[in-house]
Fold each of these.
Amino acid sequence: MMVDFLPFIIFLMILAVFLRAESALTVIYMVVGTFLLGFWWNKRALRHVEVTRSYFERAYLGETVPVVLKIKNKSILPILWLEIHEGLPVDLRSGKGFKQVFSLGIREEKQIGYDLMPRKRGYYPLGPLLISSGDPLGLMQPTQKEFPSSPLTVYPQIVNLTAFGLPSRSPFGTIKHKNPVFEDPSRILGKREFQIGDSLRRIDWKSSAATGQLQVKLYEASISLELAILLDLHRDSYTLKTFYASTELAVTAAASVAAWGKTHRQSVGLITNGTDPHNNDQVPPPLKPRTGAGHFIHILEILARVQPGESRPLESLLQDSLANLSWGATLVLISGSLHEDMLIQLFNARKRGINPAIIFTGQTPEYRSLKNLAGYYKIQLHKAALPTDLKMMGVSRT
Amino acid sequence: MSENRNLEQKPLPQNTLLTLNFLLVSVMLTCFAFIISSFLHIIAPPWGLYWFPILAFIVSLITLIARYGQQKTPGILQNKALSILVEILLIALIAKLVSLVSMLPRGWSSIWVEILSWPKDFPLNFFDLDFMLRSSGLFLIWILAWFFSLPLIQLEEDHALMEQEKLGVTFTDRYKARRSLIGLIFSLGIVMIILLGIWKSSLPFFFEEPIPTTYLVVILLAYFFTAFVFLALNQYVIMKARWYFNDIPVSPKLAQHWLFYSLVFISLVIVVIILLPTNLPLNFSQLAQWLAEAITFLVTLILSILIAPVALLISFLGSLLNVEVPEETVQRTEPEMIEMLSPTLITVPWWDVVKSILFWIVFLTVVIFAIAYYLRDKPNLLGYLRGLKVASWMRNFWQWLVRGFKTIQKTAEESFQKGIDSVNTFLRRQKLPLPPFGDLAKFLPPRQAVILVYTDWVQWNQQHGFERKPSQTPLEYAQAYHQRLPEMDDLIEPLKSLTDVFIQARYSRRTIVKAQAKQAQSLSHHLKKSFNPQDIPQNPEEGRP
């Protein structure tokens, strides 16, 4: 540090003044020049350093995410040593944060990389990246510069429900898929040979004449089955003992159902009372049922970020959700427990043409009585205490 | 997470770095030995400089290696007393051998004579002045190398020790070791500077011929250059240790880059300082005196200028009242400082004065900065100083000065503002007449004249209650004008002509001739003459027939 040199500098100056020796003056110039140049270098070095972080901003659980840091010195002033320290969340890294030391020449660019292995869904900040540098003699305190963090969204775990033998287009098989109301005659999907039971109106006479066999038109579903996922993440809905595991399982269940809907080209929506840290811990607005990969990714992003909260109880959420659903829609309620009144609400909704289904995650003390009651109201009810149960849930349906 | 894909921890160039450090210390001690031997040569001319710097280099290098060996390798070197004895004997032997070799120019016989004289009176013949001086010098170098070796070994990058240190078993204060090295380096440097200062200032009294010191200054610079490179490498070692303890991987090329950039950095400083002046004509007291004189002169000059009108007025009044002003009083107003200053100003060239001023400004700034930095680093001392009564008095005095200065500044600003306001008010009251545009237009090119005439007409209308909106085009304005004065049909033609000629002048590239300018002027004049402000209705709709 500079303070180590100070007594000598002062003494040298006194010598220079009293002796008026050019040698003393020369040494003073040298020492002061070294200080000034070191000071200037220290201050200027990091001003023209540019850092870019390249990576895929979305990742699936367990997937390796390569991150590349491009550090460029845009100045003609070389950087003797550059210490970088990338702050990383615990759930993304195995050891300590990413740190490294190297030097950067004139207008030199360096690429360094590291891999992340997300172990938990979430919305993580990568960074901030702290860089520091100093002069060769260590005369000044190293200067520091901070670069802002950038987000990484880790999607929740998805269980392939279809693989476990789900019988129909609906995950819980309550709506018959032959309902003509879902087909749009203006959108021809393809053609196939006539089978007994096909309506005569579906026969394509031109292609039948061309092929010599009766051909029927296949139409696209213009009004797809609406699948609304109601994810309850209210703290009171889960037992404290298995709170963390149960809520995570609920999110996994929601993501799996959404993925099933996407695979079957169904409109999928999401309603939740959890909080979104990306949106100032507010409850995310309900996502209306829609199709498409973009919408599905949007649902996954919300499911990646959403955290248990206390802002809105399930009762009011259920009321609003049921009021906004159209006829024929399926409502999958995922929660830790349920009040009997809500079963009655769901039963009333069923009478209005909505198909409710319930998935309990974690430990539900009143499961047996609730199951009996749900059976009475002809509402499907499933339970998953572990991820394996979630997978078996599909199996049990076959 | 698999971190640090790009960097692999390679074995550190420990030996290279250590060897480099040993070499740098040896070079520094060689420079020191060179200046010492040069100084001794002046004091005792018979003693030659034969090989002394080279010997100093060898002795210091061997000493450093021996100290390092003692620390690291078990064996015979572990016996410190024996090792020291052997080293002393070796140094004495080398010193004597060199003394003998230095006799070679006089022939082999002189060496034999010297050797044969030893049995006669051994202490006197063996321990002669040349041998004593050389061996003393070498012992001094040996001791200094010893001093250097202790912190240097502490700073060495020993992985086994560092691993223990990381676990908290041992602790090495590397900063303390570095401070010791800084202390040693600067102490030797100061000794060399003092020797050079004495040499330059005192010895010319004893010797008739001036002794050149330039090459010694070069040696001094070489010493500090080497020292700074050495300190840079030590800083690298300290930083490396810090990174090691924090598990931060370091680029394997960092050591090379550190050395290279340090060399460039220090070389740059050397290049800059070579260009700076070292021979200043004015010392501090002379400069302060010169500055005081210059300030007094300036103040006197300003006062004279300020007083001159008053003096003139008084003399004028005096002449009116027939009072004779004594001649002596008038003569006193001439600044005497010119005469007082003239010798200094003549003898010292202005460039040297500027250099001196710059030097002293830099000097005082550095001293103040150094003291402030030092005090900031020692909060206890700062607190003690702040607690002193003198400090509080000085603080109060300073605050009083600042308050006074602020009051003066505020008063001056207010007075200045008042003055400006009163001048503005006076000018406004005067209603200075604007020059007639018609006259101005005569001197302008036709295009500018047309534009000026039209603008003048618009302004005149504005003054008479018919304003032109910023959004209105000339044609719209003409239309509005006509709408306001619908009954005056005879004005339509001149209004249209004036607007057309203005549009042509302002927005087209057509040539505008003098005749058009004159026409515009006459049209404007006609419009102004025919215009009666009372004809303007309050509402545009009112004016419609």
Amino acid sequence: MENPKERILLGKLREFDTAALETVYDRYSPGLYAYACRVLGDPASAEDCVSETFSRLLKALRFGQGPRDHLQAYLYRIAHNWITDLFRRGAPFEIPLEEETVSLPDTTGDQAEWNIRRRQMHAALRRLTAEQRQAIVLRYLEGWDNEEAARAMERPVGAVKALQQRGIAALRRMLVREEDVS
Amino acid sequence: MKEPIRDPKLEQFFRAVNAVPARNPARMEEGKKAFMEEARLGKASVSEMPGSRLNQCTTFGKERIAMWKIAGALMIAISVLLGGGGAVVVGAQEAMPEEALYPVKTWSEDVRLWAEGDSLAGMDLALQFADRRAAEIVHAMDADLTVKDAVIARLMEEDDLALSIAAQAGDADAPAALDKVRTRLEEHVRVLDYLQAGAGPDESALLLQTRQEIRQRLELLNGDLRDPQLRVRILEQVQDRENRPEVTPAGQTNQNGNEDAGQGAGPDSAQGSGGGSDTPQGAGPQAEGTPAPGGGNGQGSGQDPDCVCPTTCEEQRAGGDGNGAGGNSTPTVEGCVCPTLVCTQQKGNRTGNP
């Protein structure tokens, strides 16, 4: 979150300070990878998302733009935009086989069923509006509070909460009712 | 602390995507290396003091405002020395490109742009002057006069100036400013569409190219104008155009003394010479045979009215013969000679033939 240290870091970033750039990459790239992976379900695409996010950060800095504060929110916004563009281009939805080797978080469930749920969830996330998806993922998967999510989305907290509610309702319609019917 | 989902069934789906596969360390290291390398290159292209980048005098580039400052100061000095300059300037405002007072008109416009700087008022002024250029093109067509390349070039420069000011406005102002630019550019395209119907072959090629240039600018403006990344892409696009050599409708390249412009390094690192050398130095993957601006012999005359010419850069690339025969950069489609569209991504592919 915004603090004097981050402000100093951002200042150094604008000067293309090597140590600052490395710090930023090391600090935020794992989280961005996880975020992209949760939305896309594909590690290779998630890596592409991370690369492009940091590349766009550099381009913004080169033009004297880029974040003045809240670097993390800025980076997640870029990643979200990249993913939204990818979905708009109609990129095929495919989770590679090796990705299925992600192990169950506990030993009580069935692996096959768990994999099906993952695929269904990825497909459902993709069908949400871009803002609903961002609001849902930041809040319920990344564990951000509403103020942080609002900063990343550049929307008021109330609007973010409304997007979450509508997103959850849409997911319930898509996932839970489908499951009940089947 | 993650917010619990109160629906247990739905929560199972969230839990299913929450665990992510471990990151491939090699890929991570590779990504970091690429990032640091890009940063190193970016650092090299950015001067240490951002302010100093705005104080250079060049014909093109972000420094255009600084160039206008100097031009404006000279203009004022000359006006004061000669006396009665004000009346001349006022009288010149209605001058058309073929008239003697036209240079005074454009000088006075430069002075006004200089005075506004890169404020939003400067953007409005640039758009207003771009409208004047559109009106001058209409006048030339109506009067059966040749549309001057300089008028077209100025129209593009003023559009780009408006775009770059709008893209650099703050988060609060930029979307509305860009929307305003978009509206004006769309209007310019409509004017050119209208003129195209009654144009002869020579004007038709010029109008087509100009329309494509404006459409290229509009492509990005059709995105989410609130997106800061979009604004960066707009600035990049403007910078790309500013760095490329001027290409006339006949496919001839003019160098403008910008030391970067002569290198012609493209996205694939092809090193086109483009600096007036007779010897092609292109060595990139597409250095030969790909239709590109600046390397051609110019368009032919007497275009067959049945010809189907490319209207986008993608179509142009797809329509080129691709064998590089004779270094002719004008794409041939079904035996027709078509005007060369200016495509920024082809910069690195120039062969360097003047």
